[in-house]
Design goal:
The structure is a homodimer.
Chain A (H helix, E strand, L loop, with lengths): L4 E5 L3 H11 L4 E6 L12 E4 L5 H8 L4 E4 L6 H9 L8 H8 L1 H10 L7 E4 L2 H11 L3 E5 L9 E4 L18 E5 L3 E11 L5 E3 L3 E6 L2 E7 L6 H17 L4 E10 L4 E7 L9 H4 L4 H9 L13 E8 L6 H11 L4 E4 L9 E9 L2 H17 L2
Parallel strand pairs in A: 1-2, 1-4, 2-3
Antiparallel strand pairs in A: 5-8, 6-7, 6-8, 9-10, 9-11, 9-13, 11-12, 12-15, 13-14, 15-17, 16-17
């Protein structure tokens, strides 16, 4: 009869924003955090500090929650299976989540469905990588199967002299995936949310801009996408969500070629940076819909509230006191929305984001970029 | 250099919603709560359980906060002065807050500014109340000067036989205020937010519907109000905020007569039930703007995001499992926004609210009323 307890493993900004979204739904969040002061631990009431790779810690935490979900994809798959065997509701489940954890598993599965993916192969040595690239043509992309994020664990290999790099310091059990280089003109993101009961919604498709492998900006809807193209991207995300039995947010990162065709780049099964716009720009945010999904509550309307929404990440820069930065940013633009993550400022680290909404895309872009630049550097 | 700590005294739903709004601003909320399980204590990290009338408790709590603000108006004025004397930033300050705590002080002050208030007098006995009513005409309104809320501490006295009631069980130091009965056609609410630096914003004026002294519904903007009338109400709220040196939200509850003129009924100096619509209906919610104000950050845009926003309170009814109620409400209306307060269901108690936004007022009213009725009773 009491409020349901959603256990979130991982105390980063995604958990923080999930908690904020859950307050209105009457949800109690329990957090398994990496440390007492991490982003979400500052704002959640019920915090356990512990190691998410330690079975005893995770099991003790999970068994007092009604459902367990994630801030990140790094919990070992075996441990998630062990939780399920003990009757814990794990959402998304390990059978789905492995496709966001292991790029080789994901590529094989999507290819088996005939979905658009680059030509790929698992390569066991630099020589095999060179042989692969000689077949598809140089350059080639190499990725570790597990453990990469924000551009880490991904290499663009231009010629055979770089073929050794991806094999350096490989963790046990981690493979190297070789992929053809897709000459894309831009990146798109299609977000879907799916419930255990199979209900699913798709957000408007976003264009995302990455720098050094980190998402820095999204524009929603993606400019210039025809309704037909947008619908095809949404359908692709909904199809993958169903095929993989995803529960919660599925983010499908897409590369769009010059001929407008798209190829799947990465999958994420949690609220995603390319969906942060939805807090201020959609009728229901990705965070609220993720919580609704993991609790098997009906999903909320994902539609945009304004013609254009631009989200720009705040990466750590010269300014160390972000709240002081708010003074300047908010004074100049009373309609700008800011999310600060409560994280210490480190160069290049995601420490917040700003969102602008409006009718004129150029104006909205300008406002978001100005706000983020001001928070970053006070320039 | 760290995140500012806003201390909130009182752990009700207003503190809960303030915390939700502060997460994005990077604010840390510290809570002085009446009990470990009250509404806000469930969702705030830093909770102190203690008595807000006990000086030692309040002083120890306040001295570790950057600023102290309130979920309710019941902290003794003397104690707030004592905090100020110790260098604690109390916002709103006791000199302002006393006008929301003591109706006699408020009436005298507003009357001294020539602002529209009912004819009033402090009456020391039932006989003086009868004499007052014989002068203004019957019926007459009697109120306790302090301690009333949600219709408690207010009487409509129709004839001399009822004149004794307001004097029963009067707490020490509490007076009885007699007011002429204003034959109003509806109630309006004008919300302003003001910073210590004097910056102020006014929200669109709402019409509020009260039942048994409890706000049950607001419609924003108030239907049928001319721009001139709306501006006059906003100006009145901004003027009172400045005259009284309010910091944070000031809610001015107004009675509108048949000739459209308005009279001030009550003041509140904290986020107010008539401003709950702003979470989903305004560019910046009253909760975020209250926090910005008490931290002296620039205020956010108070304008509405849609032509109509209707907020309907969920009062405790037959349904005891509100999260289960969500299943039905959210399935029927994916665009409806719900706030549950995490409170046990007691008949007539405010346990949540729903908000609908849209272009068609009748439709928006119908959606909000349906959602609230379903959550209340499952009927």
């Amino acid at each position: 009869m009491g409020a349901p307890v959603v256990g979130i493993i991982g105390g980063g900004q995604l958990a923080r924003m999930m908690h904020a979204a859950g307050i209105g739904l009457g949800i109690k969040v329990a957090l398994l955090a990496e440390g007492p002061d991490v982003s979400a631990a500052q704002v959640v009431h019920d915090v356990t500090v512990g190691d998410y790779t330690d079975p005893a810690t995770v099991i003790a935490f999970a068994e007092r929650c009604d459902v367990v979900t994630f801030d990140h994809e790094h919990v070992p798959t075996d441990l998630l299976h062990a939780l399920q065997e003990r009757g814990v509701l794990v959402r998304p489940g390990p059978e789905a989540l492995v496709h966001a954890q292991d790029k080789v598993v994901m590529r094989r599965r999507l290819a088996s469905y005939g979905l658009p993916v680059p030509t790929f192969a698992v390569v066991a040595s630099p020589e095999e990588l060179v042989a692969f690239a000689d077949g598809t043509g140089w350059p080639v992309i190499a990725k570790t199967s597990r453990g990469g994020y924000d551009g880490k664990g991904v290499w663009k290999v231009d010629d055979p002299t770089g073929a050794g790099e991806p094999f350096r310091n490989l963790a046990p059990g981690v493979e190297v995936l070789a992929e053809e280089y897709v000459p894309f003109v831009r990146e798109l993101s299609a977000l879907a949310v799916r419930s255990p009961s199979g209900q699913a919604v798709a957000y408007p498709v976003s264009e995302s801009v990455q720098q050094d492998g980190i998402c820095v900006e999204t524009t929603t809807p993606a400019p210039g996408l025809t309704m037909e193209q947008a619908t095809a991207c949404q359908r692709l995300a909904l199809e993958i969500a169903q095929d993989l039995d995803v529960v919660g947010v599925l983010a499908v990162e897409l590369m769009q070629r010059a001929d407008s065709s798209v190829v799947v780049n990465e999958l994420a099964m949690r609220p995603h940076n390319t969906g942060h716009w939805s807090i201020d720009g959609a009728l229901t945010s990705q965070f609220e819909n993720h919580l609704r999904a993991v609790l098997d509550l009906p999903l909320g309307d994902p539609r945009a509230r304004a013609p254009w929404t631009v989200m720009h990440n705040v990466l750590g820069g010269d300014r160390t006191d972000l709240v002081d930065g708010l003074r300047h940013v908010l004074a100049r633009d009373p309609g700008l929305k800011v999310q600060l993550y409560g994280k210490g400022v480190v160069a290049g680290r995601k420490v917040g984001h700003v969102t602008a909404v409006g009718d004129d895309l150029d104006e909205v872009l300008r406002r978001a970029r100005h706000g983020a630049a001001e928070l970053r550097s006070g320039s």
